[in-house]
Amino acid sequence: MASIEQIRNNLIDKLSLIKNKELLSAVDRLLEVSVKEEDVYEISEEQRKALQASNSDIASGRLISDEDLNFEEDEWLNE
């Protein structure tokens, strides 16, 4: 079985020989779609729970402005 590097290099070699603009455009569109699909991040169960808790806080209005947070932080640091 070929390694990822071997496959990538074989594709680069083949692409460099193609003179058909329509074919190259089609390959480019195909690669754009697959690259975007690979941008999906996998998160752990703990991260998923933290995001759900954050969404719940937002939905319930449990928020604090950046200005208020900075004020509270300054007060805490000066104690």
Distance linking N and C termini: 64 Å
Q: How many beta-strand runs?
A: 0
Give a short account of the largest sheet: none
Q: Low-confidence parts, pLDDT < 50 over ≥5 residues?
A: none
Keywords for this structure?
mainly alpha, single chain, elongated, 79 residues
Tell me what the structure shows.
With 79 residues, the protein is mainly α. It folds into two domains: 34 residues; 33 residues, no CATH class. The chain is elongated, with a radius of gyration of 25 Å. The N and C termini lie far apart (64 Å). The mean pLDDT is 88.
Topology, element by element:
Elements: H1 4-17, H2 21-37, H3 45-59, H4 66-77
Provide a compact summary of the structure:
This protein is mainly α and 79 residues long. It has four helices and no strands.
